[in-house]
Amino acid sequence: MATDSWALAVDEQEAAAESVGPDPFTVHTRRRLLRSRREMSPVVAHDRAAQSLLNKLIRSNLVNTTNQVEVLQRDPNSPLYSVRSFEELRLKPQLLQGVYAMGFNRPSKIQETALPMMLAEPPQNLIAQSQSGTGKTAAFVLAMLSHVDPANRWPQCLCVSPTYELALQTGKVIEQMGKFYPEVKLMYAIRGNKLDRGVKLQEQIVIGTPGTVLDWCSKLRFIDPKKIKVFVLDEADVMIATQGHQDQSIRIQRMLPKNCQMLLFSATFEESVWNFAKRIVPEPNIIKLKREEETLDTIKQYYVNCNCKEEKFQALCNIYGAITIAQAMIFCHTRKTAGWLAAELSREGHQVALLSGEMMVEQRAAVIERFRDGKEKVLVTTNVCARGIDVEQVSVVINFDLPVDKDGNPDNETYLHRIGRTGRFGKRGLAINMVDSKASMNILNRIQEHFNKKIEKLDTDDLDEIEKIAN
Ligand SMILES: Nc1ncnc2c1ncn2[C@@H]1O[C@H](COP(=O)(O)OP(=O)(O)OP(=O)(O)O)[C@@H](O)[C@H]1O
After folding, report:
1. Euclidean distance between CA atoms 236 and 277, whole angstroms
2. SS3 of 290, please?
3. Ligand 1, atom 30: nearest CA belongs to which residue?
4. Distance in angstroms (rounded) separating the CA atoms of residues 443 and 93
5. Closest residue (by CA) to atom 25 of ligand 1?
6. Quick check: CB of 350 below 6 Å from ligand 1?
7. Residue 331 and residue 220: Cα distance in Å, rounded?
8. Which of 181, 218, 230, 455 has its CA 20 to 30 A from that of 321?
9. How far apart are CA 81 and CA 93, in angstroms?
10. Is the CB of 444 under 6 A from ligand 1?
């Protein structure tokens, strides 16, 4: 199956997670609920929203004026397009404040479409696909925060992520979004977080990885699954396609009440996975992309012809010599190549971080955190980091090796997730694929055919040409 290499990485990660030391992961949001909806006039709300987004984008050199953001969100062909405002989505005032404090101005297409479905009464199930970096996480986080009853001190929403790092990242989004809703508390169900036997959780939202969530619902009984109202599967296709995760997710699902709302999200759903999802989710609403919509126009895709890994490395150096790259993620097929490449890049004077499957999850989370803080500019990794990781400043993704499954066939889903680490929420991004043999050229051609999207050739000996594509 297309996700096997990812599955392997995930399994390694789950195993490694066992050895992480304890950490109190309970989040107690501090601030009191500020103003009610009545107190915030639409004009003031709009100004605050516009200003906060503008500040965020100017800080990250994305735009110079609010107009450019507005242009992006008013283009009906953009996945960021929306006709509605967050106010019109009838969010609780304290969530509206959280959204604005995060610098969000308008909802994206997936947020605008999915939120009314997720907030409808009676609750409706949803299987939703939307391009990478278009705000799926924010969408289901808002749904969970909207559904909890803070007066009830027990878990009501359960969110399962395929990896420790993603669970942490999504938890951070819940914390930020719920900053003005301090009555709602969050607990991380990840393997290092050891609780005393017999404890009954009081936190209303639990985010975690499937094995730990399952233990907490069954063996350890920290969570009463019968009281769960919302169940979210993030990166749902990999949860379904990976045997271990599938078993665990289905065992969790079976313990939930019949009327529990099920929400499945991903940027990719292979056909067989999609069909399976429809079988396990009763009467779902469905948001599905057409194949040609799956790739983002804001991410420009190129390939470079080489003969060996040394030539690929030289091409990489030429690219770095020609353009300024804020941050880059470089994907390799094996840990060995990743280690070699990271060492070569360091020798060239780059600030490089290396992240691969054999590292302890704690170490991995720390590497991502440093990269997110800009302490390293280049992250060399394997498929372990292909999904979900959201680092705004990544302007270039390099496939040093093209993604293939265990039979050597193109792994289209992983390709999409990898290149989606750049071009987050309307930002422009470059994806450069290194081809080093007839076989890899064949893989590239099949990826082009699959997405029906041309991947242009790039001559890395021609510095002017590289500069041109960067502009
Ligand atoms: N409405 C919004 N306005 C501005 N920024 C937003 C909005 N929604 C989300 N974002 C930002 O866009 C980035 C991408 O969002 P998010 O991580 O939710 O995407 P995703 O669809 O889950 O991506 P992936 O498929 O890679 O998991 C994040 O940095 C998030 O803070």
Report:
1. 8
2. coil
3. 135
4. 50
5. 132
6. no
7. 38
8. 455
9. 23
10. no
Q: Does 388 sit in the ligand 1 pocket, CB within 6 Å?
A: yes
Calpha distance 186→26 (Å, rounded): 6
Cβ atoms of 156 and 147 closer than 8 Å: yes
d(CA 276, CA 271): 9
The helix-helix angle for 243-255 and 210-217 (nearest 10°) equals 30
pTM of the model: 0.82
Report the alpha-carbon distance of residue 127 to residue 14 in Å, rounded: 25
Q: Which atom of ligand 1 is nearest to the CA of 235?
A: 27
Q: Which long-range contacts (CB under 8 A, 24 or more apart) does 334-341 make?
A: 334/382, 334/401, 335/382, 337/309, 337/400, 337/401, 338/380, 338/381, 338/382, 340/309, 341/309, 341/313, 341/380, 341/400
Tally the residues of the chain. Answer: 471
How far apart are the C-alpha atoms of 201 and 222, rounded to whole Å?
Answer: 6
Our answer on whether the CB atom of 392 is closer than 6 Å to any ligand 1 atom is yes
- Between the two ends of the chain, the Cα-to-Cα distance in Å is 37
Q: Which two tokens stand for residue 345?
A: 């890049």
CA of 160 to the centre of ligand 1 (A): 18
Contacts of 311 (CB under 8 A, 6+ apart): 436
For ligand 1, whether the C-beta of 235 sits within 6 Å is: no
The set of residues, in sequence order, having a beta carbon less than 8 Å from that of 8 and lying 6+ positions away, is 357
Distance from the CA of 214 to the center of ligand 1, in angstroms? 28
pLDDT at 73: 56
Q: What is the pLDDT of residues 19-68, one digit of tens each?
A: 222 222 233 322 222 223 333 333 344 444 444 444 444 334 333 344 44
Strand 230-233 relative to strand 261-266: parallel, antiparallel, unpaired?
Answer: parallel
The Cα 294–Cα 6 span in angstroms is: 20
Give the amino acid at 301: Q
- 65: its two tokens: 């004026």
Measured torsion, CA atoms of residues 184, 188, 194, 198, in degrees rounded to the nearest 10: 40
- Per-residue pLDDT of 339-357, as tens digits, reads 999 999 999 999 999 998 8
Do 50 and 100 touch, CB atoms closer than 8 A?
no
Residue 266 in contact with ligand 1 by CB distance below 6 A = no
Q: Which of 130, 134, 239 to mutate to test the pocket of ligand 1 (most atoms within 8 A of CB)?
A: 134
Question: pLDDT for 94-103, tens place per residue?
Answer: 999 999 999 9
Contact criterion met (CB below 8 Å) for 149 and 229: no
Instruction: Burial-class residue 36 by CB neighbours within 10 Å (0-12, 13-18, 19+).
Output: exposed
Residue 328: partners with Cβ closer than 8 Å, 6 or more residues away: 377, 378, 379, 394, 395, 396, 397, 398
